[in-house]
Specification:
- Two copies of one chain form a homodimer.
- By secondary structure, chain A is α+β, with helices and mostly antiparallel strands.
- Chain A has helices at about 1-20, 35, 75-85, 130-140; strands spanning about 40-50, 60-65, 110-115, 120-130.
- The first copy, chain A, has a single domain (about 40-140), classed as Subtilisin inhibitor-like (Subtilisin Inhibitor).
- In chain A, strand 3 (about 110-115) and strand 4 (about 120-130) form a beta hairpin.
- Chain A is globular and about 45 Å long.
- The model of chain A is unreliable at about 1-35 (pLDDT under 50).
- Chains A, B: Belongs to the protease inhibitor I16 (SSI) family.
- Chains A, B: Keywords: Disulfide bond, Protease inhibitor, Secreted, Serine protease inhibitor, Signal.
- Chains A, B: Homodimer.
């Protein structure tokens, strides 16, 4: 029940954040306060066609922030944050989606993740054989 | 007018996307579409005490997205995006704040910026003599 409420609140905040900075006291001031109350978790994820990030143009790039609430331009921020927490912040340990089949056509897609997860720097890069495999293996986190 | 509608649709879909994976063609999946309509601009900025990012713990980390609209956990996203656009995306060319004096006490603060600005990867790091100099020289962009 509490999770549901939190999830709904997070969704609301995603929209609110677009309209301007949040104001208020510590609990009510997520704009500035989180870093002193929470270890920061703020990421930017990119994806592009190619076998490595050095040569692939980033075709999409989204932000994902998971504290104090899930937000960002990631299309499924709340779900992505939940899956990342489930994996202990390890992008190699994300739970694959169930029951999806992918071709083995090689059309590589590279994903990068940079920023900070629970106070620690993240610099992650992973190449998938094709876009389907990226979505299956990365779950919601890489689905953007 | 079309942009406003698209923006509203994207917001709505951000919420909708939490409920399930996006399906359909490019135009029908605005969760995914913005990046094909706009060159993506999604950044994560960190700051910490120390003379370089390799050794400084990131004390704060915020996300900043500037297209299609300014958003993110950055406390002044709209202003930061405007200043960045004014500097042509060059973090060394940000306009310093006027009329602020800083001491020269050396208590270094390092700022990093990673992600994508108008479709190009950004990997920026800059060390300031102290926190005051960071805010003066970086304007709103580094004020988080």
């Amino acid at each position: 029940m509490r999770n549901t409420a939190r999830w709904a609140a997070a969704l609301g905040l995603t929209a609110a954040a677009v309209c301007g900075p949040l104001t208020g006291a510590a609990v009510a001031a997520p704009g500035a306060a989180p870093s002193s109350l929470y270890a920061p978790s703020a990421l930017v994820l990119t994806t592009g066609h190619g076998s490595d990030a050095a040569t692939a143009t980033p075709e999409r790039a989204v932000t994902l922030s998971c504290a104090p609430a899930a937000s960002g331009t990631h299309p499924a921020a709340a779900q992505a944050c939940a899956e990342l927490r489930g994996a202990g912040g390890d992008f190699d340990a994300l739970k694959p989606a169930d029951g999806v089949m992918c071709t083995k056509v090689y059309d590589p897609v590279v994903v990068t993740v940079q920023g900070v997860w629970q106070g620690k720097r993240v610099a992650y890069e992973r190449t998938f054989g094709n876009a389907c495999m990226k979505q299956v293996l990365g779950g919601s986190v890489f689905e953007f």
